[in-house]
Design goal:
- With about 130 residues, the protein is of the alpha+beta class.
- The protein has one domain (about 1-120).
- The protein contains two helices and five strands; from the N terminus they run E-E-E-E-E-H-H.
- The chain is globular, with a radius of gyration of 15 Å.
- The model is unreliable at about 130-134 (pLDDT under 50).
Length: about 130
């Protein structure tokens, strides 16, 4: 059975947060959320966890459809998420960049790279009614 795959944005401080959401339970809208958490001072970590229906959360901002993944391919989707490098420590305490030759990467950049790779590897398939997000 195909499952819908979205990017989900929630309110955050100082920036909003974004990750990939797979709606594994269409009857109640809940699913699995794949994202990186942390910051550019301490680095980030990859986290995958069960997630309620995004629209029911007070911090919900936006949900955009990416495409669909076959129910049997959710493990492969997670493998792709783990392939994308997690943003590490990028700033010193004084706010200067550790490596000025590289742009800062946060959850937004990580999510875009994941979405691009999911589509490129054919794990997530776009239909006529789906649009790429991020």
């Amino acid at each position: 059975m195909p499952l819908k795959v979205y990017t989900v944005t929630t309110l955050g401080a100082p920036r909003n947060h974004i990750g990939v959401f797979v709606e594994t339970s269409p009857t109640n809208g809940s699913g699995q959320f794949f994202n990186v958490e942390g910051n550019v001072l301490t680095g980030m970590e990859y986290i995958s966890r069960p997630h309620p229906k995004p629209e029911d959360m007070p911090e919900f901002v936006e949900k955009k459809l990416i495409g669909e993944v076959d129910e049997n391919e959710v493990g492969r989707l997670e493998d792709v998420c783990r392939k994308v490098e997690v943003p590490g420590v990028q700033l010193r305490l004084n706010g200067s960049q550790i490596d000025e030759t590289k742009p800062l990467r946060r959850c937004t950049e990580w999510t875009k790279e994941v979405v691009d790779l999911l589509l490129e590897e054919g794990v997530v398939k776009q239909g006529a009614s789906t649009v790429s997000t991020v």
